[in-house]
Amino acid sequence: MSLQPRPPLDPEDLHPPEGREPPMLELRIDPFPSAAELNALFSSAWGCPHNRDFTPILLRSLAHIGAYQDGRLVGFVNVAWDGGIHAFILDTSVHPEMQRQGIATRLLREATRVARERGAEWLHVDFEPHLTGFYRACGFRPTEAGLIKLV
Fold first, then answer.
1. Which of 111, 104, 146 is nearest to 14 (CA)?
2. What is the pLDDT of residues 108-127, one digit of tens each?
3. CA distances from 142 to 76, 127, 136, 137 (A)
4. What are phi and psi of 128, to 5 degrees?
5. How far apart are CA 90 and CA 88, in angstroms?
6. For 76, what's the count of Cα atoms within 13 Å in the CB-facing half-sphere?
7. pLDDT digits (tens, 9 = 90+) for 46-79
8. Residue-level pLDDT at 50
9. Is the entire prediction scored with pTM above 0.85?
10. Which residues contact 37 (CB under 8 A, 6 or more apart)?
11. 142: CB partners within 8 A, 6+ apart
């Protein structure tokens, strides 16, 4: 588990603001975006530079979902797993220009559907307190958990 800062999701991301149409998006299951695409998205969404090859991570994931607008990656979520019945939401990210339009909600709903379809029985997520409303609205319920920082 990474202790990197979480992306800046907002509870208002659940629904587009009044009078604003949601963007035309294509959700792709297991799209394997390039390192450049993911690094650009993560750098803009998280506000810090990323420079990593995600291929080894995505190859071991249960699924990952990309949100594309006009062929450009604007949102992403990874569903890691234990190889059994537990799956884990990681790296939920939406480009800042596309936030508050319901994209993260759509990504999580699709990730939930795919994880269930692929045999997961439990879907876990860790998040910062200000995101509680967002994740609760996506169906997650609070649990007790433990954490050790290793580095």
1. 104
2. 999 999 999 999 999 999 99
3. 23, 10, 8, 12
4. -80, 155
5. 6
6. 28
7. 999 989 999 999 999 999 999 999 999 999 999 9
8. 86
9. no
10. 73
11. 132
Q: Are the C-beta atoms of 134 and 13 separated by less than 8 Å?
A: yes
Q: Hey, which residues does 68 pair with through a beta bridge?
A: 26, 73
How many Cβ atoms sit within 10 Å of the Cβ of residue 77? 26
**Of 16-25, 37-46, 112-121, 132-141, which range is least confident?**
16-25
Q: Where are the alpha helices (DSSP H) in the chain?
A: 35-46, 55-60, 103-117, 132-137
**Residues recorded for the chain:** 151
Q: Smallest Cα–Cα separation from 85: which of 120, 114, 124, 125?
A: 120
Q: Which residue, among 38, 87, 43, has the nearest Cα to 67 in the 3D structure?
A: 38
Sign of CA dihedral 133, 139, 143, 147: negative
Q: What token pair was written down for 30?
A: 């297991």
The single residue listed with the structure tokens 């009044």 is 18
Average pLDDT, the chain: 87
Token pair belonging to 94 = 């939406």
